[in-house]
Amino acid sequence: MTRRKSSKPSPLTSPPVPLTTEDSPLTPHLSPPLVAIIGRPNVGKSTLFNKILGVKTAIVDDVPGVTRDRNYADATYRQRTFRLVDTGGLDLSASDGMLALIRRQSEIAIAEADILIFLLDGRSGLTPSDHEVVRLLRGVTKPVFMAINKIDTPKSEPLIADFYQLGVDELYPVSAEHGIGVSELLDALYPLLRAADGTNELSQLPRIAVVGRPNVGKSTMINALLGEERVVVSDIPGTTRDPIDSLVTHAGKRYVFTDTAGIRRRGKIDRGIEGWSVLRSLRAIGRSDVAVLVLDGEEGVTEQDTKIAGAILKQGRACILWINKWDLRVGDAEARKNYELELHRRFPFLTWAPVLYGSALKSESARTVFAQIDDVYAMFTKRISTGTLNTWLQNILLVHPLPVRKGKPAKVTKSAFVTQVTTKPPAFALFVGHPENITPSYLRYLENQLRESYGFTGTPLRLLVRKK
Q: In this structure, are residues 314 and 425 in contact, taking their beta carbons and an 8 Å threshold?
């Protein structure tokens, strides 16, 4: 399918007054250009986003308003890289409520992007909302590529005629669902992209997933750390749906933070959009280094918090407990003591996780998490030499020998050997003559001794028993 051209001058290339916004924390540090997909609700932006990436990163549904935040992902086309941004539906008539919040996120994406793909619905034809977006884009100096979606057969090509009245230089008919015309659209973007250097800068940075139940303040915390309205915040539970990555710079160090959808009890999760949101939240934990579990300081620790903490431990991620809304309990002298008792009761398996108290509404309070993240990430990636470990082990065996076998104590010298096999999380292989004699209680003892000797705050440890 070939793109259609119009001889009329493009209103999008007339002398503009550029939109302005505060620089995004993503922009100064990432060399690939930022390509934003914009358009009114339910025209197929997330479908096109997924098709360009080649993976189902964004949640897609026929219901308008599924995408709410700006969703970023790195993409490559013909050895050239760019950063793709999916946005919520741009409804310029919205002045309050969720649609207004989504509109704000789209406007920020327009302001920070280097290239815009304006997606329209070929089946619905040109609408008044589309005209409003075009008027908004007349004030934009950056390149704008107008793509007409849902043109999936030759019979549907006449639908493009309705869009000629916009007077643009070129139209790009596509079918985001079937991939038709997408390569032609990317070919048009190609001269504006930069050659890939073979490295992924973000993959080298610590990844922190902010997780928890709905409406405990996860998105508020992300915005406080960024100092901008990066994600939509609302009192409505379930506002966040896609896991949203944000690059944060603090004290000269950079981190990738992921805001995730709230994880409700399994029996209360609706099938469809919410089910996908929860699944992707769990996947976001798995691809992170550190999980910041946000708890409600006013409501207390719930059974669902325990299950989320269990998911963090199961996936072997480092963990920090952030007790949010603590400013509401400042006057309660016994509050912290009682809360810590509740944490020990609910999280006996996370005694190694540091606990922070604060308020996500206050940037200064939220940013205290950075120092703890640095400490925890250092432990999560810590490696101890084999010689040091075996000196430590022999000293341990002098005090607490290996469990006896058939009534005979094991010899201390050369009775066991230990080495660290990996990091993220730290894992150790313990080689003994009779692995069947090593009890869970003895492994817990060794783990506690490892933590006492080498720290390992905030990270799980793996102890694997192997036959010598």
A: no
* Nearest of 418, 422, 421 to residue 450 by alpha carbon: 418
Number of Cβ within a 10 Å radius of residue 48:
27
Q: What is the mean pLDDT of residues 425-447?
A: 91
Please give the mean pLDDT across all residues of the chain: 78
Cβ burial of 331 (10 Å; 0-12, 13-18, 19+) is exposed
Residue 106 pLDDT: 65
Q: Which residue, chain included where needed, has tokens 């000797």?
A: 453
Pairing state of beta strands 290-296 and 462-467?
unpaired
Question: Long-range contacts of range 26-32, CB-CB < 8 Å, 24 or more positions apart?
Answer: 26/72, 26/83, 26/112, 26/246, 26/247, 27/112, 29/201, 29/247, 29/249, 29/254, 30/83, 30/201, 30/202, 30/247, 31/194, 31/201, 32/74, 32/81, 32/82, 32/83, 32/193, 32/194
**pLDDT for the residue 11:** 39
Split at pLDDT 50, 70, 90, the class of 395 is very high
pLDDT at residue number 74: 79
